């Protein structure tokens, strides 16, 4: 009989062999689900010792039925789909996976940026339809001497800054949690939000999802930007108001946008269609399926770290990536 029961709420990796390889060594049984709602979790959560989640929400309803859970391990950085306060009250450790995809997200952000400003999608569509004219992507402007704005200057923001520096842009940063000196040490200038919006020709956004960052960019922010701005969001979808972005794009005030996830975050929905969001009908928008974090190496690392955190906690050790400080050590 297994010593522990570990429930994986959902996954899109094809299998859970990596997780089983790590967790079976401590005597755990791994139960892999494909839950898209808390109702599908309740039965399995009651007697679990640990839960690992990718997209499924682990909220207070699920946490309240847990009788012995010791750890909730999130695949990834963001924990907005875990009720951390409820877990803390129940004495359940919450962990996440940090710094596993910094290079991938920074590469993806820069790829979206260059594709937008060099009009690669427009040229590609034109040539495939038999149009061989440089004018099919006009206007295209020189990058050197323009201003790159970066929102949030954590590891990913700093990696983006390092990548765009050789293009000759001036980099300005909005992040209220870092100092002027820290930003300057990375070759950029820290500014307030209003200055960022007013001056950036290009805006890179990768903020986490919190109550304060929902619709971080909306109608007022788009109106405050310089005409012809390009926007790239490799952070969470709901940080950009897609309805407001659509209006700004249609008016021409925003020249183009690259989104790694639309506001509705399709991976978390039972059913989804691009018809749900008019953004998908615009030719100057690139949308990728929340794939900025992806490489074969980053996926493997995320899975290994998440499973290892569960093994560590169930073995009585401290996690390497704690999100909270539970009041006691059992879920009962």
From TrEMBL:
Gene3D superfamilies: NAD(P)-binding Rossmann-like Domain
Cellular component annotations (GO), alphabetically ordered: cytosol
Biased composition (Polar residues): 317-332
Residue ranges of domain D-isomer specific 2-hydroxyacid dehydrogenase catalytic in the record: 20-324
Keyword tags: Oxidoreductase
Chain residue ranges for the region called Disordered: 257-276, 313-332
Domain D-isomer specific 2-hydroxyacid dehydrogenase NAD-binding: 110-292
GO molecular function: glyoxylate reductase (NADPH) activity; hydroxypyruvate reductase [NAD(P)H] activity; NAD binding; transcription corepressor activity
Signal peptide per UniProt: none
Sections of the chain in a coiled coil: none
Residues spanning the membrane: none
Family: Belongs to the D-isomer specific 2-hydroxyacid dehydrogenase family.
Protein name: C-terminal binding protein
């Amino acid at each position: 009989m297994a010593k522990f029961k570990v429930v994986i709420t959902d996954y899109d990796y094809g299998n859970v062999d990596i997780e089983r390889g790590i967790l079976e060594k401590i005597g755990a049984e791994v139960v892999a689900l494909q839950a898209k709602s808390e109702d599908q979790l309740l039965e399995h959560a009651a007697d679990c010792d640990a839960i690992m989640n990718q997209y499924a929400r682990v909220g207070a309803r699920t946490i309240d039925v847990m009788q012995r859970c010791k750890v909730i391990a999130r695949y990834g950085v963001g924990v907005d789909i875990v009720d951390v306060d409820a877990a803390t009250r129940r004495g359940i450790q919450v962990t996440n996976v940090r710094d596993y995809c910094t290079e991938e997200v920074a590469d993806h952000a820069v790829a979206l940026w260059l594709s937008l400003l060099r009009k690669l999608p427009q040229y590609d569509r034109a040539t495939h339809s038999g149009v061989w004219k440089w004018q099919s992507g006009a206007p295209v402007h020189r990058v050197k001497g323009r201003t790159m704005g970066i929102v949030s200057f954590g590891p990913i923001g700093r990696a983006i800054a390092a990548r765009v520096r050789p293009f000759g842009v001036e980099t300005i940063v909005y992040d209220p949690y870092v100092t002027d000196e820290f930003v300057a040490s990375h070759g950029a200038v820290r500014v307030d939000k209003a200055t960022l919006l007013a001056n950036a020709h290009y805006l890179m956004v990768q903020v986490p999802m919190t109550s304060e960052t929902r619709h971080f960019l909306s109608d007022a922010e788009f109106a405050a930007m310089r005409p012809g701005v390009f926007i790239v969001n490799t952070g969470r979808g709901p940080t950009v108001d897609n309805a407001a972005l659509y209006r700004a794009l249609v008016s021409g005030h925003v020249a183009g946008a690259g989104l790694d996830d639309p506001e509705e975050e399709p991976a978390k929905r039972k059913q989804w269609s691009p018809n749900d969001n008019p953004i998908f009908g615009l030719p100057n928008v690139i949308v990728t399926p929340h794939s900025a974090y992806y490489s074969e190496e980053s996926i493997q690392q995320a899975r290994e770290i998440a499973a290892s955190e569960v093994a560590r906690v169930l073995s009585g050790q401290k996690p390497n990536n704690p999100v909270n400080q539970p009041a006691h050590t059992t879920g009962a």
